[in-house]
Amino acid sequence: MTHLEIREKFINFFKEKGHVLVPSSSLLPTDPSVLFTTAGVQQFKPYYLGQADPLKDFGSKNVISIQKSLRTVDIEEVGDNSHITFFEMLGYFSFGEYFKKETIEWTYEFLTKVLAFDRERIKPTVFAGDDRAPFDKESFDVWQSLGFDKEEIGLGNRHDNFWGPVGNEGPCGPANEIYIDGIEIGTLVFNEYFCDQDKKLTPLKQNGVDVGLGFERIAIFSQKVSSIYETDLFIPLMVEIRGGNLYDFEKNLSSERIIADHLRSSIFLIADGVRPSNVGQGYILRRLLRRAIRHAKLLNQPEDLYERILHVLEHDIYAWTYPELKIKQKEILEVIVAEKEKFTKTLERGLREFSKLTSISGRQAFDLYTTYGFPVELIEEMAKEKGLDIDLAGFEQEIETHKEKSRAGAEKKFGGHGLLLDTGELKAATEEEVKIVTRLHTATHLLHASLRKILGEGVKQAGSDITAERLRFDFTFPRKLTEEEIKKVEDLVNEVIAQDLKVSKEEMPYEEAVKTGALRFFKQKYPEIVNVYSVGNFSKELCGGPHVSHTAEIGHFKIIKEEAVAAGVRRIRAVVQ
């Protein structure tokens, strides 16, 4: 089944069930809590909250969309069998007209009758209940009515099978997760409660349905392939990169996938108005483009690669779905070519300098970053490919020294570097990004304390970097964490968040603060009088802020990656949702 057939069958099926098709919203969200649109529900939040009228705007309380989305926390993982950055969500939503029974039955019918997936491949999970919300018996009973035995229906905890609220209060409810062959393809969220600031749940006057199915994963199963890069969403791109040869590719598979994914994502970002820059959304675009350009260089790709990839995307894959790609074709190509020319001027010289290195000091990484325009993530990737050690702590110190010099006399001019907030550790370009990094900053305190409680007090902070996209926390530990340890840390952080503990600040002399047991970053020099931030009785650290007032404001904490940085130093990347 082609991707166009999947789209058509999805739209027709849910139109027959009384839904109205709503166009995909932009990749640039109105929601300040996220950098990009990451799910179909984002454009519909006002309708769940009663702030907008779906009947007036759509002529129906039931809508569907195929939402273009972008997630960037796994950029470094792109190149393997499964990770991508741009993706689409098949979504169906109801603002008070139908609820669990219809949602589950229609989902099952769509999967088994329309997409023809074998019933034996499907496994649903429902919320098991806890001390705050009951077992979702209604969903459980519906799945049983469809022929699933009790043993076939998984029971999940709050982390996996309960959604929301986002922030301190708001709609929330139990969720069903749907798996095919053990891989999650969708989530059915049933908003039936309002959670207030005291964490009290009260029934909503109007129940809401929010369903998202992963389009690319459905394509994988429908087309009976093992990777997204083998579906008809990517094959035309892969063939173009290989010069028409589909099969002789194993040697360069990772680079080819990086080029295909990153150019695909970049083209959609540019079409929605993003331009390469050094901050926020523009930085992500620049990072994607430069990583693609570097891998194109490694494969000696011809100069017209970018024009050909754009043509294949707008003409062969998305002509009927996203006509804006054709309308803005000239503009998109101009942006890509300009960035390529800007980066290519220094890329070869930078690669020559890099090839001479046997290890990478902080200063050398800084020179690659400033002189040759290599994003730090690209430097890390190249070092990993060559098996070189890199002094990231030294690099961050070089960056901070540079910023201190550059900020002199420019503090009143929007942060001095185009950033509204730039403490060295925290970076934000807008008021919205400041709110996000504030949540992430408090989350690092909870992460630090959780690591020490689970792994032992030998854990010490070795560095931190926070942007609106993610937090990066370095700590001392002699080995790789197990999956069980990572989950324990993540669960403990979320447990503290759910307790909505107060975050308080107290000024005191440095020596006194140390005596109280407050944690500190040992490489940092502190003034005589310091701020001590406490999160209930769970965490206490010396810090300059900013922080949330209560932990529930952080949202859901998710560890994305755990890896080595240097001998005896590990790194965790995490996000809040």
Secondary-structure topology with pairs:
Layout: H1 3-16, E1 20-21, H2 45-48, H3 54-58, E2 62-70, E3 86-94, H4 100-114, E4 122-127, H5 137-145, E5 154-156, H6 158-161, E6 162-163, E7 170-180, E8 183-195, E9 201-214, H7 215-222, H8 235-241, H9 253-271, H10 280-298, H11 305-317, H12 324-327, H13 329-355, H14 362-371, H15 376-386, H16 392-407, E10 421-422, E11 427-428, H17 431-455, E12 461-466, E13 471-476, H18 483-498, E14 503-509, H19 510-515, E15 529-535, E16 539-542, E17 557-566, E18 569-576
Parallel strand pairs: 1-2, 4-5
Antiparallel strand pairs: 2-3, 3-9, 4-7, 6-7, 7-8, 8-9, 10-11, 12-13, 13-18, 14-15, 15-16, 17-18
Fold and architecture overview:
The strands form four sheets. Strands 1, 2, 3, 4, 5, 6, 7, 8 and 9 form a nine-stranded mixed β-sheet that branches. Strands 12-13-18-17 form a four-stranded antiparallel β-sheet, covered by helices on one side. A three-stranded antiparallel β-sheet has the order 14-15-16. Strand 6 and strand 7 form a beta hairpin. The model is unreliable at 406-417 (pLDDT under 50). With 577 residues, the protein is α+β, with helices and mostly antiparallel strands. The radius of gyration is 25 Å and the shape is globular. Helix content is 40%, strand content 21%. The protein folds into three domains: 3-222, 2-Layer Sandwich (BirA Bifunctional Protein, domain 2); 228-405, no CATH class; 427-576, Threonyl-tRNA Synthetase, Chain A, domain 2 (2-Layer Sandwich).
